[in-house]
Amino acid sequence: MSFIKKFIEQETVNRRNLLLASAYGLGGLAALGALGPNAVRAATANPTIAWSYRDRTNPYWNYIVSGGEAFVESLGLPKTALVNLINEGSSEKSLADVKALLGKNGSKVALAIDANDAPNCRPVVEAVAAAGAYVSTIWNKTDDLHPWDFGDHYVSHMTWSDEGPAEQTARILMDAMGKKGGVVHLGGIASNNPAIERLNGLKKALKDYPDVQLLDAQPADWDTQKANQVMAGFITRYGDEIKGVHCANDTIAYGVLEALRAEGIEGMPVVSYDGNQQAVELVAKGQILATVFTNPYWGGGISAALAYYAATGAFKPSNEPKEHREFYGPTILVTPKDALEFKAKYLDTNPKYDWKDFWGPSKGQIQYKS
């Protein structure tokens, strides 16, 4: 498990370097100030393609951006043509970067973005629509915000139905615990839709396990180092009461495993989410019981493709049915019995995708709870 310790150390170095690169690359854009009022314009040729995301040091987001780069290369452009807007988990920076990009390029923008938290999605979409540009969002938005309310300029929103898969991993976890004892949950950013759904999945599963107690649930902000600290605190507080750990993503699990190792705890049942390569390798070894793959490479590429082809007029979003404007991405449960086969198919080499097949692997229209 030495790679986990190295992962934590390298994460700090990479994050610092990314912040410096981001500040350098966006300095000229930020100087342009906030977006002024712009008239809505027609579709345009050769829009600037951008991806706004949290942090490429996180393997999940690296897959996302790699998919975006693959799409850009499919257009005959170098991957460096993709503009990277790195928000480091700050909704304020996310919005400021988008406005700066629009201030420089106006309507000639095709943007893919995770707005970082649900409330930030609306001002991002409003800024893009006001500029006459085009945006596809993933993961985080409020339930009352819909692409069809913005004509063609809010192209699409994709999320993943996390509650069901998180419930599956929770059941695997509690079965491994012998259906009794205490479980702890380490979540993402508290206001993130996937963080909420993944905790809800655990709580739903708990209803069928009366002898399992949820000892504690704390946010770890999708971060390995914070997860390490949170788990160390759980061990101090609950000690031997902890019989299993439910993690909201793989990078959280890495911090958990390192905290357990530091205390000499071996064989603790742990489950995670995202299906990153290192996590899948740990699943194959039985050190993580299960993870869930959301195909971020496809998600990153297709989100950029949707925004780009809407911007160029290749298709008109407002002519599409609602299930093409808001839709679920694919999920695959990965367990020890199939981890190596899964790794060979999806991770050892990136599958080839038709980036004009916008909805092929998608899983239907998003459903909202009343």
Automatic annotation (TrEMBL):
It comes from the Bacteria. Keywords: Signal. Gene3D superfamilies: 3.40.50.2300. The keyword Ubl conjugation does not apply. GO terms for cellular component: cell envelope. CDD domains: PBP1_ABC_sugar_binding-like. InterPro entries: Peripla_BP_I, SBP_2_dom, TAT_signal. It is found in: Cell envelope. Residues 49-313 form the Periplasmic binding protein domain. GO terms for molecular function: carbohydrate binding. Belongs to the bacterial solute-binding protein 2 family. This is ABC transporter substrate-binding protein. The lineage of its organism: Bacteria, Pseudomonadati, Pseudomonadota, Alphaproteobacteria, Hyphomicrobiales.
